[in-house]
């Protein structure tokens, strides 16, 4: 018998905006929070499982990058697209207080504040992608164009 899936804040926000999505649960491994593990658990192509990264720029503050789960963000490109001279990953200890989310459960939807969001161009190669639903063990299956529209994201090269 499948476990009852709890609606997250991200899911409630999408409901309110009348955006179609599906909540998909997976087995969490606290020792391995990598997106590759999530893709394996979902039985999906890693290129469709995106991770949400939170960065801080020297000029424009905190912003969000959503990239394919097996890739690393190019900090120089992230700085350029976000109008910063230099950027760094937000420190783990700041993640919860800044976004309301924890590592492994950070969604680009429903953060404490609406931060500028950048999504890698390959998202548009698919009819749906996966992003965190806002908690470990739960992903949102969503059309990338809907995610881009809802988050007011800029689609650009981040790799």
Structural account:
By secondary structure, the chain is α/β, with parallel strands linked by helices. It has a single domain, classed as YbaK protein, CATH 3.90.960. Helix content is 25%, strand content 27%. It has 5 helices and 8 strands. It has helices at residues 9-16, 35-42, 75-82, 92-99, 144-151; strands at residues 21-25, 50-57, 61-68, 87-89, 117-120, 129-135, 138-142, 154-156. The strands form 2 sheets. It has a 5-stranded mixed β-sheet. It has a 3-stranded antiparallel β-sheet with strand order 1-7-6. The relative contact order is 0.24.
Descriptive terms for the model:
8 strands; 159 residues; five-stranded mixed sheet; single chain; 5 helices; globular; 25% helix; three-stranded antiparallel sheet; YbaK protein; alpha/beta
Helical stretch count?
Answer: 5
CATH class label? Alpha Beta
Count the domains: 1
Rg of Cα set: 15 Å
SSE order in H/E notation?
HEHEEHEHEEEHE
User: Unreliable segments (pLDDT under 50, ≥5 consecutive)?
Assistant: none
Instruction: Compute the average pLDDT.
Output: 95
Overall helicity: 25-40%
Q: Major sheet: order of its strands?
A: 4-2-3-5-8
User: How many strands in all?
Assistant: 8
C-alpha termini separation: 40 Å
- Report the CATH superfamily: YbaK/aminoacyl-tRNA synthetase-associated domain
Secondary structure blueprint with pairings:
Blueprint: H1 9-16, E1 21-25, H2 35-42, E2 50-57, E3 61-68, H3 75-82, E4 87-89, H4 92-99, E5 117-120, E6 129-135, E7 138-142, H5 144-151, E8 154-156
